[in-house]
Amino acid sequence: MQKQDYEEIVARIIQSKSFGRSLTYANLLRYLATCTAEANVPKEATIAAEIFGKEDYDPSQSTLIRVYMYKLREKLTAYYENEGKEEPERLTIPKGSYALKIIPREDSDQTNPPIGRPVAYFLAGVVVSAVIGYFLWPQVGPRENLTPLPVLWEDLRESRFPSTLVLGDLFIFSENGPEGSITRTIRQSEINSQAEFERFKEQHQPPQREWTAATYGFLIQGSAHWIKNLTEMFRILDKDYSIRTMSRFNPKEIQDQDLLVVGMLKTLGLFQNYFQGSRLMYDAAVDGIRVLHEGEEKVYKPFGDPNAYHTDYAVLMKMPGPNGNAVYVFGGIWDTGATQSLKIFTDTQLALDLEKEMKTALGAVPQYYEVLIEVSGLDRMELTSRVVYLYELE
Question: Is 324 left (phi over 0), alpha (psi -120 to 50) or beta?
Answer without folding.
Answer: left
